[in-house]
Design a protein that fits this description.
binds pyridoxal-5'-phosphate; 16 strands; globular; 12 helices; single chain; four-stranded mixed sheet; alpha+beta
Length: 379
């Protein structure tokens, strides 16, 4: 089976792991954690990076630092991985679900602006969502597949309505925005280094951003809010720090990040060129500078989830791993009752997405096999 997305561990990973064991630095203190944070800060154009145990925990800490509290709402696209919504719930808040745009599958800023104007009022300095009476506490776009949406529009909404701008950048390592790194585009942006991401630590995450003050707070919160040198704690913190073992793998991965992202973009281009003429099938939208985390095909308009799943399983029968993708948050049991707007684009696209093999280690020969099989099944 040609796998969907597997880690590429052929660099210094083993050497650095041996070093962790030889030096006994396997926990949250160690040279690799600091080095990894430096590499992520530099790669994303952030003053610093705070390494976390996972993307989800990074998101939870970022939202907490931004002031998201029990009973609040956070604006979120419904088309995202469940972790984005879970991090909001971990704060005791609810997502306010909005639609994505067809061109990049990311939260649509014009929809956000319209819904705020239609449903919110300012009361005692807070933005209140009138239908629920809840405070809107943050704006949280997602860099879907490593596409970066119109962040100037989100920045201006964030300024106008005084909403912290927190981005789920879990799959965005390597993405550019107008040729610039994305670390300064939002108050905080959260990356994931889970096993299927372009760069992996086995598991892990990092928080970067334009707000040095919030980053300091995230660092404090993720390290149990300890005030050294004694056992003093000034907040209810989290045990969310990345370990040296995770960071050792991450450092070895980051040494090759440019070639990884280059390969991801190459795979996207190859699929676009080879599969775009199959009638009524399309490929994934790609913004300029996208990191192209996953690639694949979109089945024709009107195809049901079952029909798409059937095509994916026929591709798998040919020895090629192909899977459906994120089922939106409003279709998930824990989020059926949260505030939501029309989710027309979300409901048009999610049922039709098939991800195809796109590991950074995929060979040209494997790509040729994938293309031949997909063309045969989808013709
Ligand atoms: C992978 C991913 C996450 C979760 O990150 P973990 O490191 O697995 O906790 C969150 N959001 C999105 C969009 C992701 O793709």
């Amino acid at each position: 089976m040609i796998p969907l997305a597997v880690p590429n561990l052929s660099g210094n990973e083993r050497k650095y792991l041996d070093d962790c064991i030889d030096t006994t630095f396997v926990s949250t203190v160690g040279e690799y954690v600091n080095r990894f944070e430096g590499m992520i800060a530099q790669n994303t154009g952030s003053a610093e990076a705070v390494a976390t145990s996972a993307g989800t925990t990074g998101l939870h800490a970022a939202l907490t630092a931004a002031g998201v509290k029990h009973g609040d709402l956070v604006i979120l696209p419904s088309f995202t991985f469940i972790a984005s919504a879970n991090a909001i719930r971990h704060c005791g808040a609810d997502p306010w679900l909005m639609d994505v745009s067809r061109t990049d599958w990311c939260l649509d800023p014009s929809a956000v602006l319209k819904r705020i104007q239609a449903e919110c009022v300012r009361k005692y300095g807070n933005l209140i969502h009138e239908p629920s009476g809840k405070k809107v506490a943050a704006l949280m776009p997602v860099y879907t597949l490593g596409n970066i949406p119109d962040m100037e529009a989100f920045r201006s909404i964030s300024l106008e309505y005084q909403l912290p701008l927190i981005v789920d950048a879990a799959c965005a390592i390597g993405a550019k925005y107008h040729d610039k790194d994305f670390g300064q585009l939002a108050d905080l942006s959260v990356l994931s280094f889970n096993g299927n991401k372009t760069v992996t630590c086995g598991g892990g995450g990092a928080v970067v951003g334009a707000s040095d003050k919030l980053l300091e707070l995230v660092r404090h919160l993720t390290t149990t809010a300890r005030v050294w040198p004694d056992y003093d704690f000034d907040m209810v913190g989290f045990n969310y720090r990345m370990t040296n073992v995770q960071a050792a793998i991450g450092c070895a991965q980051m040494e090759r990040v440019e070639s990884f992202v280059e390969r991801k973009r190459y795979v996207r281009r190859v699929y676009e060129e080879a599969l775009s003429d199959i009638s009524d099938f399309t490929t994934f939208p790609t913004t300029a500078g996208a990191s192209c985390w996953f690639s694949g095909i979109v089945t024709p308009e009107g195809y049901s989830f079952d029909k798409t799943k059937e095509i994916a399983s026929r591709i798998r029968e040919k020895g090629i791993d192909a899977k459906t993708f994120w089922k939106p948050i409003h279709h998930q049991k824990p989020y059926a009752d949260v505030p939501m707007e029309t989710l027309q684009v979300t409901d048009e696209i999610w049922e039709r997405i098939i991800t195809l093999p796109c590991s950074t280690g995929i060979t040209d020969d494997e790509l040729t096999q994938v293309i031949a099989a997909v063309r045969k099944i989808c013709k």
